């Protein structure tokens, strides 16, 4: 699932031991399904070409402040898509210094600070994005994710619920709301998931994730469907990035920590840097490793 990512980006184009033993025993007893592998996503050649062009453009002293701000923003978004977070963050900061009301730059900064675990900075950036653009399509989701990882679950549920109201047919909004609600009340979360599922197109592949979480689909059956019905604009690496992240979350619920860790590692190997699942697989992997200590 992309967050702000290329759709908006292109708009601005400028050309305890006993417990551990028990868990390990449970994991050993559980069969490990065969997984699907894909070649890691390769850096878009056109991104690198555009970065080179923007570098040349930035040397043009005749640019207006608005053009300069959008040039830095654009390059920052490209760096972000390539996984170059530090360079990206520097450009977003430059863009904001020149054009302080650039909501998209604040949104990106909020995402990156969440990845770093710098939650105070993340909330400040995402609150700024929403203040500047209350209808921003992704800032509410991103603030909910920051709240989720900062263990502010009630706030996360509120933001995810509001985000879902804006598009009840989006399966990923449904899934993130479920993940937060499950931390508070598993039974209520499952009931809400089943109810929210009704608004989602049955043919949407992400619906299989919901069916997995509801117990309507086994882990093996889910894995068998990973390569089916790929959209024309979807790569196998993108599909696997999403699938393995949510399988990792599923395995956490089963307290199968080693399996969860492996799924998060598989999500990271896809190199789909701009997907929310790739961004936060590292956080999930670190949290899962703590359960294995």
TrEMBL record:
Residues 1-18 form the signal peptide. It comes from the Bacteria. Keywords: Cell membrane, Lipoprotein, Membrane, Palmitate, Repeat, Signal, TPR repeat. It is found in: Cell membrane. PROSITE patterns: PROKAR_LIPOPROTEIN (PS51257), TPR (PS50005), TPR_REGION (PS50293). May be involved in cell division. This is Lipoprotein NlpI. It comes from Idiomarina fontislapidosi.
């Amino acid at each position: 699932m992309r967050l702000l990512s290329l759709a908006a980006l292109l708009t601005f184009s400028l050309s305890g031991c006993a417990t551990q033993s028990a868990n390990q025993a449970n994991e050993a007893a559980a069969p490990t399904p065969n997984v699907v592998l894909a070649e890691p996503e390769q850096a878009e050649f056109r991104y690198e070409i555009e970065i080179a062009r923007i570098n040349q453009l930035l040397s043009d002293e005749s640019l207006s402040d608005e053009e300069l701000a959008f040039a830095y923003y654009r390059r920052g978004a490209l760096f972000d898509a390539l996984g170059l977070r530090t360079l990206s963050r520097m450009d977003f900061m430059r863009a904001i210094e020149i054009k302080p009301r650039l909501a998209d730059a604040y949104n990106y900064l909020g995402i990156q600070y969440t990845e770093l675990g710098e939650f105070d900075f993340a909330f400040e950036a995402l609150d700024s994005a929403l203040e500047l653009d209350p209808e921003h399509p992704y800032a509410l989701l991103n603030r909910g994710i920051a709240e989720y990882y900062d263990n502010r679950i009630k706030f996360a549920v509120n933001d995810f619920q509001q985000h879902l109201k804006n598009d009840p047919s989006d399966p990923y909004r449904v899934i993130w709301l479920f993940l937060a609600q499950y931390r508070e009340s598993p039974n209520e979360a499952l009931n809400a998931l089943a109810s929210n599922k009704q608004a989602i197109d049955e043919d949407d592949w992400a619906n299989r994730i919901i069916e997995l979480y509801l117990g309507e689909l086994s882990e093996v059956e889910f894995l068998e469907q990973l390569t089916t019905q790929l959209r024309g604009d979807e790569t196998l690496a993108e599909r696997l990035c999403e699938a393995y992240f949510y399988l990792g979350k599923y395995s956490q619920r089963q307290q199968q920590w080693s399996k969860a860790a492996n799924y998060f590692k598989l999500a990271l190997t896809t190199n789909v840097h701009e997907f929310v699942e790739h961004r936060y697989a590292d956080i999930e992997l670190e949290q899962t490793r703590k359960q294995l200590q």
